[in-house]
């Protein structure tokens, strides 16, 4: 009764896990709030909330998603709220999107009805100096000061 050996088909071998970069995608669900910067070599689909900068190969943002931070990617498809700069070769802004920040791009598509408060800057494949990471300082009264080089 108890002498039966375990079925070998039930044993899983985890030694074949990937150790290099993956070519898939990662997803952040609508019930997740992530505070901190996100760096991914894969594509990202974000339906939740991110408070921090995002760097990835391609980003797809869901309609109910919110991102408070900068986005840097090869391609970006925005459908939710973004408060921060977007730097990408290809940017698609859907009609449900609300962007408060600057957008640097090589190719840009904006659907009618999308809301954008910021500057659009064609960048010719390079990050424009105005959107490069700038040093931050805090003044005596506690206000954040951004030092920009023109």
Automatic annotation (TrEMBL):
Short name of any one Pfam family annotated for the protein: Bactofilin
Domain of life assignment: Bacteria
Database matches in InterPro entries: BacA/B
Similarity remark: Belongs to the bactofilin family.
The name this protein goes by in its record: Cell shape determination protein CcmA
Organism: Novosphingobium lindaniclasticum LE124
């Amino acid at each position: 009764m108890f002498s039966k050996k375990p079925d070998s088909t039930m044993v899983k071998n985890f030694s074949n896990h990937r150790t290099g970069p993956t070519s898939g995608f990662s997803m952040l669900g609508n019930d997740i709030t992530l505070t901190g910067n996100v760096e991914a070599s894969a594509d990202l689909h974000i339906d939740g909330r991110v408070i921090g900068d995002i760097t990835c190969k391609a980003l797809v943002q869901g309609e109910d998603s919110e991102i408070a931070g900068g986005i840097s990617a090869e391609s970006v498809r925005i459908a939710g709220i973004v408060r921060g700069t977007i730097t990408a070769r290809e940017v698609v802004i859907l009609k449900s999107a609300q962007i408060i920040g600057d957008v640097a791009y090589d190719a840009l598509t904006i659907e009618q009805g999308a809301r954008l408060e910021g500057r659009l800057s064609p960048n010719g494949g390079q990050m424009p100096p105005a959107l490069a990471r700038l040093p931050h300082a805090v003044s005596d009264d506690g206000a954040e000061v951004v030092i920009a080089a023109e």
